[in-house]
Amino acid sequence: MKTSRKYLYLILALAFLGCKPETQKVETEKPTESKKEIVEIKIPENVDNDFKVFLDYFSKDSIFQVSRVKFPLKVMEVDKNNTLESIEKTISKTEYTKLDFEYPKNALTRAYDKYNQKIKTNGNKTVIEIRGYDNGICTDFFFEKLNGKWFLKSWNDTSD
Fold first, then answer.
1. Residues in a beta bridge with 119
2. Rounded distance between C-alpha atoms, residue 69 and residue 149, angstroms
3. Closest CA to 121 of 87, 150, 154, 96
4. What's the pLDDT tens digit per position in 13-24?
5. Which of 35, 45, 137, 160 is the most buried (most CB within 10 A)?
6. How far apart, in Å, are the Cα atoms of 142 and each of 36, 95, 135?
7. 66: enclosing H helix or E strand
8. Are the C-beta atoms of residues 90 and 110 closer than 8 Å to each other?
9. CA 40 centroid distance within chain
């Protein structure tokens, strides 16, 4: 009987010790405000002399990009309800989302969304042709040089 009492006391002691609340301090991260890093990009005065230089800044700087889009922007896109027809869509300044024409090195070798991007300039007009490989991507972006400055005028997206 004495042996079973010892075991009973031992079990009770372990139970009480096991249920003891932890007093360790746990470090928690305090939520902090997310701060966006603002990077000022200096646009050179001769940005419009070479279309590729213009396009680089157009892709990097959203404020510069919006200043170089002719609004309201009239674009052609495939009708989502009827894939056989294109419809004209008008995009206002508030509806516009930034475009990025930076052509990644792996654009033709990646597993999904492979595409090629060609820039064709003829005088004061340039077309950027984006063609996918086995994925239906097909978009043309139309730029025009007006009063010595390049502007995005429109696009035609026939991607399916």
1. 128
2. 11
3. 150
4. 445 445 444 444
5. 137
6. 32, 19, 22
7. helix 62-67
8. no
9. 19
Three-state SS sequence of 15-72:
HHHHCCCCCCCCCCCCCCCCCCCCCCCCCCCCCCCCHHHHHHHHHHCHHHHHHCECCC
Could you read off the pLDDT of 74-107 as tens digits, one per residue?
999 988 776 678 899 999 999 999 999 999 999 9
Mean pLDDT over 116-123 rounds to: 97
Instruction: Break the chain down into helix, strand, coil percent, rounded to 5.
Output: 20, 30, 50
Identify residue 126 by its one-letter amino acid code.
Answer: T
pTM exceeds 0.85 = no
Alpha carbons 23 and 6: distance in angstroms, whole number: 29
Strands 73-78 and 149-157: parallel
